[in-house]
Amino acid sequence: MSEKTQFGNSEPGESVAQIAEREAKKEKRIKELFELRKKLGRKIEEDWGGIKAFDFPYSGANHLGCSTSTNSPFTSRQVEMALVLRAENPLIKVIVDDPIVNSGNFNPLPLAVNKVLQGLKFLDLGCGEEPSFARVVRNLGAQVYTLDVIPADRFDRYDGVDSRPWVTEKIGEEGIRKQEDKFHIQIDLRDKDAFEKIMERTGGNFDMVTSSHLETGSPRTMAGGEFETIRPPWGIYPEAKESLKLLKPGGLYYPAGILEMGATDIKD
């Protein structure tokens, strides 16, 4: 059983030096991921943080990061971090390294056709009514679960998805809805058994657990005088510790946002 020390979580038989070395490697990896994410972002983001190339039909609605609530520039960061987890892929590497690539000519079609994120499993905490992160990375091959206090039938839905050029089997809007229903978890993280229920439903073993708008609430619901939230009312990123349990060894907990780097963690 691990114990918490000032250097991180200790395992039985570990010395302080070993713990410190392990934590240093983790911090180095996190720094590398952030440097890659920021480099990628500088190439494909607009000045305000959105990614126009990931518009409908990738996002199922407006282009990625165009809003201030459930599809904000923080959502762009989530997609960028997902991509840099596969930074060794030549199709992603060329986007990061080629000086010719910019937000005006970036074309995500090869990423979708070649399913560059296939084999990766993600969980988006607090996806909101417009689960753009999940839709984009799902179109790039990833398996994605979404989680929110609202049910999937509250999602802003696709329209005309058969226009997606990389879809080999025309599943249509109804098929997309069934897929989103299947991989959505309606739950409030204030439920004391929330993460046990998530583990039971998903099997855990995620490559990344991420969030961007846990406390945003639904604009439509707010307009009616009601503010929805799924984050417990204590501390900053209190879900981080429990989220680590859902990750595979080496998996990433990534809360996109102002405090993202300080709160990001990797499971030992």
Please give a structural write-up.
It contains 10 helices and 8 strands. The chain has 268 residues and is an alpha/beta fold. The protein has one domain. Helix 2 runs parallel beside helix 5. Residues 1-7 and 217-236 have low confidence and may be disordered.
Would you summarize the structure shown here?
The protein has helices spanning 16-44, 73-84, 90-97, 109-113, 132-139, 172-182, 194-202, 219-223, 240-246, 260-263; strands spanning 3-5, 8-10, 121-125, 143-148, 184-186, 206-211, 247-255, 265-266.
Task: Summarize the helices and strands and which ones pair or pack.
Blueprint: E1 3-5, E2 8-10, H1 16-44, H2 73-84, H3 90-97, H4 109-113, E3 121-125, H5 132-139, E4 143-148, H6 172-182, E5 184-186, H7 194-202, E6 206-211, H8 219-223, H9 240-246, E7 247-255, H10 260-263, E8 265-266
Parallel strand pairs: 3-4, 3-6, 4-5, 6-7
Antiparallel strand pairs: 1-2, 7-8
What would you call the structural class? alpha/beta
Helix count from the secondary structure assignment: 10
Provide the helix percentage. Answer: 25-40%
Report the span from N to C terminus.
13 Å
Mean pLDDT: 82
* Largest β-sheet summary: 6 strands, mixed
Q: What is the global morphology?
A: globular
Q: Helix and strand succession?
A: EEHHHHEHEHEHEHHEHE
| Quaternary organisation of the protein chains | single chain
Please tell me the total number of domains. Answer: 1
Q: Could you tell me the radius of gyration in angstroms?
A: 19 Å
Strand order of the largest sheet: 5-4-3-6-7-8
Low-pLDDT regions = 1-7, 217-236
Number of strands: 8
